[in-house]
Design brief:
Layout: E1 6-9, H1 15-26, E2 30-34, H2 39-47, E3 53-56, H3 63-77, E4 82-85, H4 100-128, E5 131-136, H5 149-168, E6 174-181, H6 187-200, H7 203-214, H8 223-234, E7 245-248
Parallel strand pairs: 1-2, 1-4, 2-3, 4-5, 5-6, 6-7
Helix pairs in contact: 1-2, 1-8, 3-4, 4-5, 6-7
The protein binds nicotinamide-adenine-dinucleotide.
Length: 255
Amino acid sequence: NLTGKTALVTGSTSGIGLGIALKLAEAGANLVLNGFGDNEAAVAQVSQHGGNVIHHPADVSRAEEIEALFEVIGQTFGAVDILVNNAGIQHVAPVEAFPVERWDQIIAINLTSAFHTTRLALPGMRARNWGRIVNIASAHGLVASANKSAYVAAKHGLVGLTKSVALETATTGITCNALCPGWVLTPLVQQQIDSRAQASGNAEQARHDLLAEKQPSLEFVEPAQLGELTLFLCSEAASQVRGAAWSMDGGWTAQ
Ligand code: NAD
């Protein structure tokens, strides 16, 4: 039961972040949502579960906007007990053609934002000697694919940050772990299916090929399943899970 706890989920107006926010709210937590797009719909959906819910529009590629987000959380809820670093973007191109500004943006959003949120959340967690930091990495935090250099570098970096923070908090009630999902059917992946379908003219085939290349189960992971795994990491049963990079990938990294 997470009643009385406050959770911040970055990038939670859509996809995996929204799925995790819903599970945390169901368990009783107050929620700070973040991200672009239809934030009113996300707030309405998460609010159905009863806790207090706010949305903050911080662009997490900017340190000063993350600092402003934490100011608001401090005033509204006091502090962050559960931090889920989920905001992320993708760009697919060979390294020699990779747009420089996209590289910088991916490193900023998918990796550096987690450094900023972690450094800002930890003092409050230490004061209460309880906290959960869950970094949404990827199968690409453990293995690579061609044409995703920035994403793979950022996600491997996020797994590394997870381990360092886990060691720095090892004797406290704060844990820090990474989740490494395989394919989840969200807007981020739909874009990749669409660009394959454009090339081949067959959307169903594109969806099948995307799974068949990497994910032995041939099924997508569901955002709600990642939400359940996050709830487990928030439980006392998981208090000695520290610095893990936990796969939920339909067998992707077993190969
Ligand atoms: P998504 O595109 O559905 O959601 C991304 C969220 O991040 C949105 O809420 C968006 O508004 C927000 N966002 C983007 N840029 C932002 C910024 N600068 N500041 C604040 N918010 C920002 O994507 P998703 O698939 O749900 O991805 C969520 C996370 O899961 C990402 O870190 C992604 O790398 C990771 N992941 C996804 C998959 C997958 O198959 N979908 C697999 C492994 C890991």
